[in-house]
Amino acid sequence: MYKILTKKELSQGVQLFEIEAPLIAKKAQPGQFVIVRIDEDGERIPLTIADFNRDKGTITIIFQEVGGSTKQLGDLNEGDSILDFVGPLGKATHIEKIGNVVCIGGGIGVAPVYPIARGMKQAGNHVVSIMGARNESILILEEEMNAVSDKVYITTDDGSKGHKGFVTDQLKMLIDSGLEISLVIAIGPVVMMRSVAETTRQYGIKTIVSLNPIMVDGTGMCGGCRVQVGNESKFACVDGPEFDAHQVDFNGLMSRQRMYKTQEAAHECQCEK
Ligand code: FES
């Protein structure tokens, strides 16, 4: 069993849990994820690692309560335990000193971007971060992102904080300012990652996205997380979750996600009974 040491609500329906998991904390790297199962009847929930502390032996996860399982997870409290907490899974982010790195997090996507930005900064890069949200009240980890970035830009859809508009507007402004960008890392809603990929493609800027498709086993056995990258089928759980954004078939990914909407809605109804 894995104990919840800290629970914090970062914004409405967005929870941070610090979990006691020393063996995972020992090995975890930016970009990897865990699969959580609350109890024996629970669905497996893949969540990207938002932070790890090797000394304390903890893993931090941040999740949005969007369906039955994540709502059930959000109902747990400090001192409660989770049955399964498996990881670290997936490939770690390739971190090296390459120059100017732009880290983009959309919504809850800021959570997995944070350890990557920190790793890139520690490797000696100049890190510029762009955080996007629908409005100010759902912005998360602003202080943490400021601590690991040379500069942070905020965009909100309604203009309640930072630039009114999308992360891609800010990215375009950075490119137009003449900043020589060596790498863009973008994590967030699929539509956002697709827009970032379209923006950087025309400038030939290397861009990495982290995909979070439906996952079941997380070990490459079930095929649930299949994504098309270039001309190849890849499994996000073992080949990713990070991929070259210019090769990802985002439209295929979105239609696969839509395929499971009915089942998800049915599951949510059952959980709420
Ligand atoms: Fe089953 Fe990736 S989650 S193959």
From TrEMBL:
Q: Which cofactor does it need?
A: FAD; [2Fe-2S] cluster
Tell me the InterPro entries matching this sequence.
Cyt_c3_hydrogenase_gsu, Dihydroorotate_DH_Fe-S-bd, FAD-bd_FR_type, FNR_nucleotide-bd, OxRdtase_FAD/NAD-bd, PyrK_electron_transfer, Riboflavin_synthase-like_b-brl
Record keywords, A-Z: 2Fe-2S, FAD, Flavoprotein, Iron, Iron-sulfur, Metal-binding
- Domain named FAD-binding FR-type: residues: 1-95
Instruction: Please give one Gene Ontology molecular function term for this protein.
Output: flavin adenine dinucleotide binding
Q: Which is one Pfam family of this protein?
A: NAD_binding_1
Sites binding FAD sit at: I62, F63, Q64
Bound cofactor: record note: Binds 1 FAD per subunit. Binds 1 [2Fe-2S] cluster per subunit.
Reply yes or no: does the keyword Membrane apply. no
Gene Ontology BP term (one):
pyrimidine nucleotide biosynthetic process
Task: Please report the name of this protein according to its UniProt entry.
Answer: Sulfide/dihydroorotate dehydrogenase-like FAD/NAD-binding protein
UniProt xrefs under PANTHER family: DIHYDROOROTATE DEHYDROGENASE B (NAD(+)), ELECTRON TRANSFER SUBUNIT, DIHYDROOROTATE DEHYDROGENASE B (NAD(+)), ELECTRON TRANSFER SUBUNIT-RELATED
Membrane-crossing segments per the record: none
Q: Where does [2Fe-2S] cluster bind?
A: C222, C225, C237
Family annotation (NCBIfam families): PRK06222.1
